[in-house]
Amino acid sequence: MPRTALITGASSGLGAEYARQLAARGVGLVLVARDRVALEAVAQEVGRHGVAVEVLAADLLVPRQLEKVVGRLEDPDRPIDMLVNNAGFGLPLSFARNSIDDEARHLALLVEVPMRLTHAALAPMLQRGSGRIVNIASVAGFIPRSTYGACKGWLISFSRWANGRYGGRGVTVTAVCPGFTHTSFHERMGLAPGQEGLPDWLWLDARDVVAESLRDVARGKSVSVPSLRYKLIVGLTKVLPAGLLASVGERGR
To answer: Which domains are assigned to the chain?
Structure first.
């Protein structure tokens, strides 16, 4: 069990749930997000477990603020044993109508930022011979789904490679690939519950997603797909025609 975990996007959704479950296991936390007030609320909640909680407010798309987080990961006097790359946002699926600047920020936050933070965490973890890196990807990474699916597909491929490359040296890298999960993610896209255009059976509970993924992380798995229903869906992506998969990828928002 890690002693200290750094979690990005920790002010809500899956990030906050990772904070709750790790704190309940006695893991100290460094919580990262843009909203300091929201971070402080999460810190107060999880601090009831008696663990040390540090708040690091940073916009990861601002280079100087990203460097603060990189510096925290590299600090030899305050080692980070687990990195959870969770920060992200979604865009409408119509690439042609989206702002290209929004698309570039989306790409940076979902690909470049976790790559940079993983790079920062790796050296000290490898030196100690232990560490856990968790990249929050998505089932969308297995399905053609505009640039969101493409970004998550990169994260899955990178995590598979990195886990194989560094797992033998004590540092595991796991891509967590949930399906549709009830969090504030869709609300931030302007969608109220029930407006996502998906049946109830496709939705997962954030607590279950995090609990199952942490079991897979502890086992050193390179890819974690929480829930049997989504494991089956991912299996089907290997045999279904590309055109059908692209049509499925248009479901939901």
So the answer is: 4-249 (3.40.50.720)
Q: Strand pairing of 131-136 and 82-85?
A: parallel
- Annotated active-site positions, please? 148
pTM (global) more than 0.70: yes
What DSSP letter does each residue of 88-138 carry, written as one string? -----S-TTTS-HHHHHHHHIIIIIHHHHHHHHHHHHHHHHT-EEEEEE--
d(CA 62, CA 67): 9
Q: What is the C-alpha to C-alpha distance for residues 110 and 132, in angstroms, rounded to an integer? A: 19
Tens of pLDDT, residue by residue over 90-113, are 899 889 999 999 999 999 999 999
